[in-house]
């Protein structure tokens, strides 16, 4: 239905653009609003003067015949700061792109009971809008439709007659939004739909919702619990990342795709045994094989994390910016550590890798772990990637294993407290700036072995300096 509506509108706009195709009898200006009749539907195409309160009529008469007002075209009320309240007609089916964008004083919108869709950026940056109630007929709320409405505090969906898709970034950065009432017609929450809604603390996902897309609720810092209904078949990457206050996670026992086995307080993808979302109270089950992107990002977690032997993979940003974590013990079966996996863990003091596990320590894996004092790297490690331990200002003890061949650029840059590091004779390459800013470091307990690879100490130091 929506596609056919948009096709009609597209045809209408083509007619508007071509003056020769617009007949005078199809255009009517009443009280500064220009209406156009097309295919027995009336479109609002232009507003000349905007008042504080505007009431749009349900129908307009053309040649003594009444036709329903069904569409508000693109940008009709764009940046109309004079507008405070608008009452839309009960016949309205669609609100088009940017229709009310930037109406900074718009505080009240009464939507029609027949409304089907709201298009891109329709109410974007209406910063005075405080609440919105959607009718049972609504099917689509598109990209950034209400993004940046930072005083919006209440959203109520009364959807029952249709299936509702909330589009990408639809309510992104609605910083004051604290209450959402979803209804049974909801089927999909799009990418970043509620990202950055920092005051959002609780909501109930209804049975029937199928998709929670990437970053849907990322950065909703006050959400305290998540309950996933049985109908959910896809949860996108980082859907609840940086939701720092989550303490309880539960997946309905009838869900066939996800579970929260053993009351672990996590969302686990059943087929892959991967944790896709954890919280401060998560207990990692012993049959979990991986920890996915951003699963614990921004969480306050236990001071000691000993990863079960079943875990083979920790993906990018899995523990990014976690607080509370002090001691981290890797098992020997972990073969993959994603970029930024533990970056920014401000309380982390000690990291120990088991022998013959990880071969490549990834990009920025422990960057900005500013309290980190000691790192014990396991035998079998061959390469340390760029910025892996950059800005670990407290790092004092670094044990590089025999077999390590490569230290890449800025891997230990600005580890200002690092004084002594034993370089194994397996090292073949130290990249530009690997130890830049490590002013106190002593590289040379094994000078006779170093000289076989570097002409002299000055050459080695040159390889580790940052040049401006």
Describe this structure in words.
The protein has helices at 2-17, 447-450, 457-464; strands spanning 27-30, 33-38, 41-47, 53-55, 59-62, 65-72, 85-87, 94-95, 108-110, 117-118, 131-134, 140-141, 154-157, 164-166, 179-181, 186-189, 211-212, 225-228, 234-235, 248-251, 258-259, 267-269, 274-277, 290-291, 304-306, 313-314, 327-329, 336-337, 350-352, 360-361, 374-376, 383-384, 397-399, 406-407, 420-422, 429-430. It has 468 residues and is mainly beta. Strands 1, 2, 3, 5, 6, 8, 10, 12, 14, 16, 17 and 19 form a twelve-stranded mixed beta sheet that branches. It is elongated and about 95 Å long. The protein starts with a helix and ends with a helix. The model is unreliable at 1-22, 444-459 and 461-468 (pLDDT under 50).
Properties at a glance:
468 residues; 12-stranded mixed beta sheet; disordered N terminus
- Characterize the biggest β-sheet: 12 strands, mixed
Overall 3D shape = elongated
Residues in helices, as a percent range: under 10%
Rounded to an integer, what's the Rg over CA atoms?
A: 29 Å
* Overall strand count: 36
Gap between N and C termini: 61 Å
Q: Please indicate the percent range of residues in DSSP E strands (runs of 2 or more).
A: 15-25%
Structural class: mainly beta
Low-confidence stretches: 1-22, 444-459, 461-468
Q: How many alpha or pi helices?
A: 3
Assembly level: single chain
Mean pLDDT: 88
């Amino acid at each position: 239905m929506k596609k056919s509506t948009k096709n009609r509108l597209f045809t209408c706009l083509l007619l508007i653009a071509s003056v020769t195709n617009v007949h005078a009898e199809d255009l009517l200006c009443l009280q500064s609003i220009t209406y156009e009749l097309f295919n027995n539907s009336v479109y609002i195409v232009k507003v000349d003067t905007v008042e504080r309160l505007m009431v749009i009529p349900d129908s307009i008469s053309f040649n003594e015949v009444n036709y329903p007002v069904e569409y508000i075209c693109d940008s009709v009320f764009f940046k109309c700061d004079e507008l405070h309240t608008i009452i839309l007609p009960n016949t309205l089916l669609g609100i088009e792109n940017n229709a009310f964008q930037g109406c900074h004083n718009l505080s009240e919108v009464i939507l029609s009971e027949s409304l089907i869709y709201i298009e891109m950026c329709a109410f974007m940056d209406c910063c005075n809008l405080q609440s919105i109630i959607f009718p049972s007929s609504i099917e689509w709320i598109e990209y950034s439709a209400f993004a940046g409405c930072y005083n919006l505090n209440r959203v109520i969906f009364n959807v029952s007659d249709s299936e509702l898709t909330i589009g990408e970034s639809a309510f992104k950065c609605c910083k004051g939004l604290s209450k959402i009432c979803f209804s049974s017609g909801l089927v999909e929450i799009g990418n970043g739909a509620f990202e950055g809604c920092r005051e959002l603390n609780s909501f109930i996902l209804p049975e029937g919702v199928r998709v929670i897309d990437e970053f849907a609720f990322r950065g909703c810092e006050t959400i305290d619990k998540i309950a996933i209904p049985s109908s959910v078949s896809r949860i996108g990457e980082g859907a609840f990342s940086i939701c720092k206050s989550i303490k309880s996670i539960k997946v309905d026992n009838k869900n066939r795709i996800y579970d929260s086995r053993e009351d672990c307080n996590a969302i686990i993808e059943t087929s892959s045994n991967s944790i896709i979302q954890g919280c401060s109270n998560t207990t990692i089950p012993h049959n979990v094989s991986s920890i996915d992107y951003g699963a614990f990002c921004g969480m306050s977690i236990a001071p000691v994390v000993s990863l079960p032997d079943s875990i083979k993979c920790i993906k990018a940003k899995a523990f990014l910016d976690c607080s509370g974590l002090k001691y981290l013990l890797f098992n020997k079966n972990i073969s993959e550590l994603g970029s930024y996996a533990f970056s920014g863990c401000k309380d982390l003091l000690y990291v120990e890798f088991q022998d013959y596990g990880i071969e490549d320590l990834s990009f920025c894996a422990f960057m900005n772990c500013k309290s980190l004092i000691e790192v014990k790297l396991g035998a079998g490690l061959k390469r340390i990637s760029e910025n892996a331990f950059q800005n670990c200002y407290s790092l004092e003890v670094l044990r590089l294993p025999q077999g390590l061949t490569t230290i890449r650029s800025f891997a230990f840059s600005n580890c200002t407290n690092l004084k002594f590091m034993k370089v194994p004779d397996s090292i073949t390459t130290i990249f530009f700036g690997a130890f830049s800013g490590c002013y106190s470091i002593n590289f040379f307990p094994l000078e006779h072995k170093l000289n076989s690879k570097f002409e002299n100490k000055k050459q080695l130091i040159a390889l580790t300096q940052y040049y401006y």
